[in-house]
Design a protein that fits this description.
By secondary structure, the chain is α/β, with parallel strands linked by helices. It contains 23 helices and 19 strands. Helix 2 crosses helix 3 and helix 15 runs parallel beside helix 16.
Amino acid sequence: MVKPSMGMKRIGDILLETGQIKQDDLGQALRLQTEIGGLLGQALIRLGAISEEDLLDALAGQLGLTVISSDAIPDNADDYLRAMNRLGLAPNWLQARQCAVWCVDDTTPILMIAHHILDQELGERIHGLAASKSLILQEHLAGGQTLEMALSLISESGTDQNDPEMGDDETQRLRELAEGAPVIDFVNRVFSMALKENASDIHIEPFEHKFQVRYRIDGVLRTRQSEPRSRFDAVASRVKLLSGMDISERRLPQDGRQTIRFAGQDIDLRVSSLPGSWGESLVLRLLRKESKLPDLEGLGLDGRAKSVLQELLSFPNGVILVTGPTGSGKSTTLYRSLLGLNDGIHKIITIEDPVEYDMDGIIQIQTKANIGYTFARGLRAILRQDPDIIMVGEIRDGETATIAAQAALTGHLVLSTLHTNSALAAVARLVDIGLEPYMVASAVRGLAAQRLVRRLCPDCSIPTESTEGESRIWNMVEKGGLGEDQLAGKANWRAPKGCENCSNTGYLGRIALFEVAIIDEALSDAILQQASLPQLLGVARGQGFMTLIEDGILKARNGVTSMAEVIRVCGSDHGVPELETSEPKSEPETV
């Protein structure tokens, strides 16, 4: 067993020298270690000062060991069983010490040992057994997720996975389980993996014999691990404790939120629980408070959409709405817009649920629905603070919409979001929740919609041809959605392939598709006449308006994303209704 020598630097000093932790972090970890025992590195992880991956790298350098990855361990339970039989070790003994052993092959008497806790007694026991049987050991460090995969296979080789069913009244037992070191470490590893892969959401889902952990990465769910169902109650309780939820309530849906610190980052954690047949499905939304906002080009705004949005942001008053489904990047676009407007001259106030990014020089307000502090109530209070620019996180009802419109008409610039399928559909939505058409026409300055598509990996995407893409391009030219000047240059259609850099998906990161309309005189008149959505689109075409799918196809033509990805996100004909040439209808068409 490798263990630190007298002349070897301590892990805390190594992490301080490399700038991975601060002196305050080390002091807190030493105090926690004094209180609960254990290793300093584990204390740093539990405090959120460092990720497990960074700690393992530092330990590997300190001890001269390598870190073994999950793809280097066997996926056959028999490999572990043979090693345990040779050494005379029981599965539950290994599980209790978070250690896995396996045979390299059938002919070579070499055993591999992987562990992430430096346990001297563990090492001496295994090495002693190996020496007595003339076996050679190769020793490695392993991350928690790698060990979890190995230990789940060890469980299959001879341990009973079924624990007694826990009753609803065993709150204290659930709390004790949630505060146990193995559960804390497991949940920390889930967060670590999510941050490493830049996941926006974590899904923890229970089934009859197992529960699985999935991450939403670049908008797509990916399964990363599966664990015995017997561990789920403790894990669920830990997540609920972290987010301020009631761990004794498992029959009703709950929502919780909390700001946590993990791997040196402050993260706003929003958790939703939904009772199901085999337990509570948990979804965790991760909002990184210190994330750097991309610029307009990085968001995906270019060409006419960028120039129109910049023009809208230069107006002294009016409502600007960004629409799209949850998770389409609306808030990021608004935050980037506010940063451009934050010149030290204007008074800017936001009201949000929750505050996702902290911005210097801007007053940011968090709604508290449980005490009646809603968007509408907060917006009224904001108007008494002499603001120039207001951002409302979301317009959800007629009262908020009316106050926002009135604020715009009295000289304020109001930015907000709305849930609709397209930019122009926001007109019908505003009318539907209670605004009169004349109020929409006079108060709203601009409408934008966006969707997020995955970017092709720059390291492995391959050239391709797209007959469908070319056909759609020229169809849009004929309809007036694209000008031939926008098709300058040779087409660069590309397709995903997959490599190590993009986890073999072919995609890396995301970019937004945009459609932006300015409410000019022609569109204002159409709104007053209660024009239908296709009629509004026909009028908007006159100002060069381009739909989401048209913007997506252009980005696919330029090699930014793939045609298949654009259709996956937008649908085959989303946002391109047939133009109507008849007179506007007397009744509004709602969405």
